């Protein structure tokens, strides 16, 4: 097989002491990220969101197809529509659709069907997975590892927003097909996640339960 064009890797090799310090500093920062449900309406410069989206879009993806789209909802009218549609879904979820076991698992978080943050936060970033590609003639081609790729991109987006100094909430009203219509996205795209972002409210509190993270021994094994 002919080797396609390659370019040099732009890799930075650090001395070991610096590696330890770098990962420690990253751990210290990223482990302070908390899911926030009380936001401030204070505006956030658009450029910060743009840079964070570029971080998300830098991630690896199946065959480098980059099967994601980030729709940034900032207009008050559209945020209101998202809130209304999401609260309607959540009302049916909390009052019957969700099995008892699911509601019990959520109880320590104290969530309910009220989602005022969807109108208060300055930005709602709707993350869409692009299920397949479309050629100019309308024919389709496969995208590979779409959920994995979009999950990784979303993680990078969350990390970048946190590092920039913003609070985030991963919100997943279910079903959320209404986001296609509100954001004007085509049927090939499936909404995966709403990343609510902005500054936290001054008196913001978070559930103590969500701070309990598993230990290294619980989440890893060395073979
Ligand atoms: N989507 C609902 C319920 C919910 C589900 C899970 I899993 C959570 O971790 C949190 C909430 C809501 O947003 O209230």
The CATH topology turns out to be NADH Oxidase
**Number of separate strands:** 6
Beta-strand residue fraction: 15-25%
**Spatial sequence of strands, sheet with the most strands:** 1-2-6-5
CATH architecture: 3-Layer(aba) Sandwich
Report the helical percentage: 25-40%
Key features of this structure:
39% helix, two-stranded antiparallel sheet, four-stranded antiparallel sheet, alpha+beta, single chain, 223 residues, NADH Oxidase, 8 helices, binds 3-iodo-tyrosine
Please provide a written account of the structure:
With 223 residues, the chain is an alpha+beta fold. 39% of the residues lie in helices and 16% in strands. It is built from eight helices and six strands. A four-stranded antiparallel β-sheet has the order 1-2-6-5. It has a two-stranded antiparallel ribbon with strand order 3-4. Helix 2 packs antiparallel against helix 6. The two termini are 36 Å apart. The model has no long low-confidence stretch (mean pLDDT 97). It binds 3-iodo-tyrosine. 3-iodo-tyrosine (IYR) binds next to helix 3.
Note the topology:
Elements lengths: L15 H15 L15 H11 L11 E6 L2 H22 L2 H7 L10 H4 L2 E8 L1 E3 L5 E3 L3 H19 L2 E5 L6 H6 L5 E10 L17 H4 L4
Antiparallel strand pairs: 1-2, 2-6, 3-4, 5-6
């Amino acid at each position: 097989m002919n080797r396609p064009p390659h370019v040099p890797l732009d890799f930075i090799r650090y001395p070991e002491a610096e590696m330890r310090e770098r990962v420690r500093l990253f751990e210290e920062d990223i482990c302070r990220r908390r899911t926030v449900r009380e936001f401030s309406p204070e505006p956030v410069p658009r450029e910060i969101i743009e840079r964070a989206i570029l971080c998300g879009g830098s991630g690896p993806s199946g065959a480098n197809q980059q099967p994601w789209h980030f729709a940034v909802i900032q207009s008050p009218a559209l945020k209101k529509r998202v809130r209304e549609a999401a609260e309607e879904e959540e009302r049916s979820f909390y009052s019957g659709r969700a099995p008892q076991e699911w509601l019990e698992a959520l109880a320590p978080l104290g969530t309910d069907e009220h989602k005022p943050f969807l109108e208060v936060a300055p930005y709602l970033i709707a993350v869409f997975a692009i299920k397949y590609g479309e050629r100019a003639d309308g024919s389709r081609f496969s995208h590979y590892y779409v959920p994995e790729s979009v999950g990784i991109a979303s993680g990078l987006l969350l990390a970048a927003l946190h590092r920039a100094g913003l609070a985030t909430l991963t919100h997943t009203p279910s079903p959320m097909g209404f986001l296609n219509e509100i954001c004007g996205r085509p049927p090939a795209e499936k909404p995966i996640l709403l990343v609510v972002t902005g500054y936290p409210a001054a008196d913001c509190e978070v559930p103590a339960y969500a701070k309990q993270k598993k230990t290294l021994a619980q989440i890893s094994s060395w073979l």
